[in-house]
């Protein structure tokens, strides 16, 4: 099952800047080799269910280390046989916007 997952996680009470914690999670995502897109409020990852869920778990472990509490949100779009969803979903909307401009 192919999935697009949007992941957002951070330690609660870790101060004003969460960038170092986000960077730890992003290193895990990059090391996975899965396609991803970093956004201002979360990171989208594309892959098969098991590999994406393994990366989500590893991101949690990386951010949780040394922290008392971690906040995590996960949104997923599951679709058999899809590939290139990271660009296709936004590309379809951008194409419609160009048509109506």
UniProtKB/TrEMBL annotation:
Gene Ontology CC: one annotated term: cytosol
InterPro entries in alphabetical order: MTH1187/YkoF-like, Thiamine_BP, UPF0045_domain
Domain Thiamine-binding protein: start-end pairs: 5-93
Lineage: superkingdom: Bacteria
Pfam families to which the protein is assigned, alphabetical: Thiamine_BP
Protein family per UniProt: Belongs to the UPF0045 family.
NCBIfam families on file: MTH1187 family thiamine-binding protein (TIGR00106)
UniProt-recorded name of the protein: Thiamine-binding protein domain-containing protein
């Amino acid at each position: 099952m192919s999935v697009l997952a949007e992941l957002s996680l951070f330690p609660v009470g870790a101060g004003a800047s969460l960038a170092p914690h986000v960077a730890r999670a992003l290193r895990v995502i990059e090391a996975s080799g899965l396609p991803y897109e970093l956004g201002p409020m979360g990171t989208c990852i594309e892959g098969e269910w098991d590999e994406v869920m393994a990366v989500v778990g590893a991101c949690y472990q990386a951010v949780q280390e040394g922290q008392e509490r971690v906040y995590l949100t996960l949104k997923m779009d599951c679709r058999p046989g899809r590939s290139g969803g990271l660009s296709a979903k936004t590309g379809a909307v951008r194409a419609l916007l160009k048509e109506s401009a």
